[in-house]
């Protein structure tokens, strides 16, 4: 267990709470992708910097980023300065806007993976919680087919946990019953 206030607040008020807002879903998908190979704590501490650097994850603005803007982001010490991860946000913004146009909203598209309702798991311990599963495999494959980057199965599972598509709070956690 951690004593980090930011982490505790994220766990208690946000992680696992169902999200249907397109911009927020896009933000979380991008942040989960930025986490690849790193800890969530690293990204969580930089989250506000990410919001500022990437225009609050407004895809309509991100798709217009120039090479100059990408270079500026590569110099931004407030985010993870990995060229492929930075470029993936632009790529994902394009795919996101296309999906939104085709499906009416990104929320409609992404929530169909769980039949439009959260999956409630009943883990007794953190050790039981998987890093990925068949559903995250399916989501990853479809997102990649639809043009997204940094959306491997583990990233997709973390995304589903973060935005409440799955409730992976353990049964003794007070958030578990709050979300069922």
Automatic annotation (TrEMBL):
Function: Hydrolysis of the deoxyribose N-glycosidic bond to excise 3-methyladenine from the damaged DNA polymer formed by alkylation lesions.
Keyword Zinc: yes
Protein name: DNA-3-methyladenine glycosylase I
SUPFAM superfamilies named in the record: DNA-glycosylase
Reaction(s) catalysed by this chain's protein: Hydrolysis of alkylated DNA, releasing 3-methyladenine
Alphabetized GO MF terms: DNA-3-methyladenine glycosylase activity; metal ion binding
InterPro entries assigned: Adenine_glyco, DNA-3mA_glycosylase, DNA_glycosylase, Tag
Keyword Thylakoid on entry: no
NCBIfam families assigned to the protein according to its UniProt record, in alphabetical order: tag
Keywords, sorted A to Z: DNA damage, DNA repair, Hydrolase, Metal-binding, Zinc
GO terms classed as biological process: base-excision repair
Sequence positions that bind Zn(2+): 11, 169, 173
């Amino acid at each position: 267990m951690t004593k980090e206030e930011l982490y505790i607040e994220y766990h208690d008020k946000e992680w696992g709470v169902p999200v249907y807002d397109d911009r927020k879903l896009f933000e979380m998908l991008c942040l989960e992708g930025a986490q690849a190979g790193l800890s969530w704590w690293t990204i969580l501490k930089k989250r506000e910097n990410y919001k500022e650097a990437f225009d609050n994850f407004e895809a309509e603005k991100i798709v217009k980023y120039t090479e100059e803007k990408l270079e500026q982001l590569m110099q931004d010490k407030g985010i993870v300065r990995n060229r492929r991860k930075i470029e993936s946000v632009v790529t994902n913004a394009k795919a996101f806007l296309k999906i939104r146009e085709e499906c009416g909203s990104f929320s409609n598209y992404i929530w169909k993976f769980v039949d439009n309702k959260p999956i409630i798991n009943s883990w007794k311990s953190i050790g039981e919680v998987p890093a990925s599963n068949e559903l995250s495999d399916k989501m990853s494959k479809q997102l990649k087919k639809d043009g997204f980057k940094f959306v491997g199965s583990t990233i997709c599972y973390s995304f589903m946990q973060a935005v409440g598509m799955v409730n992976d709070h353990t049964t003794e956690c007070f958030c578990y019953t709050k979300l069922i």
